[in-house]
C-alpha cells in the first residue's frame, strides 16, 4: 500500500534577500493586497529607510503580474507616466496630443484584476513655484485605473502626502487607504503605523 503513496514535500516560500517582516511591512503588505483584491487605490507614505521598497518587491514576488513604475524627479506629468507604463506594457510611445486615447489603451492592456505600483510617486506632481502644483498626472492615472478596473498603489515619502493635500477628492472617489510609517528615534526603526 505504501508503494502507491507519494510524499509531497512542502516547498519553501520565495524569500527576498534581507527582507524582515515588521509591523510596518505587514501593514504595507496588507494595504497592497487589499487594494489589489478590491481594485482600489492605496497610498503608502514613509521616510527613507523604513522598508517601503523591500516591501514593494516582496509583494511583487506574490503578485508577479504587478507592474512597477518608478516616477523620477523633474519628470512629473501624465505623459511621462504614460510613457513609462507603455514601456512596461510593450506598447508604442504615447501620443501627447491624445492622452485620453492613450489612457484608454493602457486601461485595456492592464485590465480588470491588474495592479500597478508607482514608486517615488511624490514626483508625479509637477511643482510650480509661481502657483499651484500640477497634479494632473495623478488624476489622469486615477481615471485610467477606474476605466481598466484595476488597483494601484502610490508609494513615496512625506512629500507625497503634501503633494496630495490638494487632491482631496482622490481618497473620496476611490476609497484610497493611506498608510503612514513614522519614525521616533535615530535608529530609524519604524515605530508607528498609521492607517486612514
Explain how this protein is built.
The chain has 196 residues and is α/β, with parallel strands linked by helices. It has a single domain (19-195), classed as P-loop containing nucleotide triphosphate hydrolases (Rossmann fold, 3-Layer(aba) Sandwich). The protein has helices at 23-38, 52-62, 78-88, 99-110, 136-148, 158-163, 169-174, and strands at residues 41-46, 67-70, 115-119, 151-156, 177-183, 190-195. The chain has a six-stranded mixed sheet, with helices on both faces. Helix 5 links the parallel strand 3 (115-119) and strand 4. The termini are far apart.
Essential attributes:
single chain, 196 residues, alpha/beta, Rossmann fold, 6-stranded mixed sheet, 6 strands, 38% helix, 17% strand
Produce a short descriptive summary:
This protein has 196 residues and is of the alpha/beta class.
Task: Reconstruct the topology from this structure.
Layout: H1 23-38, E1 41-46, H2 52-62, E2 67-70, H3 78-88, H4 99-110, E3 115-119, H5 136-148, E4 151-156, H6 158-163, H7 169-174, E5 177-183, E6 190-195
Parallel strand pairs: 1-4, 1-5, 2-3, 3-4
Antiparallel strand pairs: 5-6
Helix pairs in contact: 1-2, 3-4, 3-5, 4-5
Amino acid at each position: 500500500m505504501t508503494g502507491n503513496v507519494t510524499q509531497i514535500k512542502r516547498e519553501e516560500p520565495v524569500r527576498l534577500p534581507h527582507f524582515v517582516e515588521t509591523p510596518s511591512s505587514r501593514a504595507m503588505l496588507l494595504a497592497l493586497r487589499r487594494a489589489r483584491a478590491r481594485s482600489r487605490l492605496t497610498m503608502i507614505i514613509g521616510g527613507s529607510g523604513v522598508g517601503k521598497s523591500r516591501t514593494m518587491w516582496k509583494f511583487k514576488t506574490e503578485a508577479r503580474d504587478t507592474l512597477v513604475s518608478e516616477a523620477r524627479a523633474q519628470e512629473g506629468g501624465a505623459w511621462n507616466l504614460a510613457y513609462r507604463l507603455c514601456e512596461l506594457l510593450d506598447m508604442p510611445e504615447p501620443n501627447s496630443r491624445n492622452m485620453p486615447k492613450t489612457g484608454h489603451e493602457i486601461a485595456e492592456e492592464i485590465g480588470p484584476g491588474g495592479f500597478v505600483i508607482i514608486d517615488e510617486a511624490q514626483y508625479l506632481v509637477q511643482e510650480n513655484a509661481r502657483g499651484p502644483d500640477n497634479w494632473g498626472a495623478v488624476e489622469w492615472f486615477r481615471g485610467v485605473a477606474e476605466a481598466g478596473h484595476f488597483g494601484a498603489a502610490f508609494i513615496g515619502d512625506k512629500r507625497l502626502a503634501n503633494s496630495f493635500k490638494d487632491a482631496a477628492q482622490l481618497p473620496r472617489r476611490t476609497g484610497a487607504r493611506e498608510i503612514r510609517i513614522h519614525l521616533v528615534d535615530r535608529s530609524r526603526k519604524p515605530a508607528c503605523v498609521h492607517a486612514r
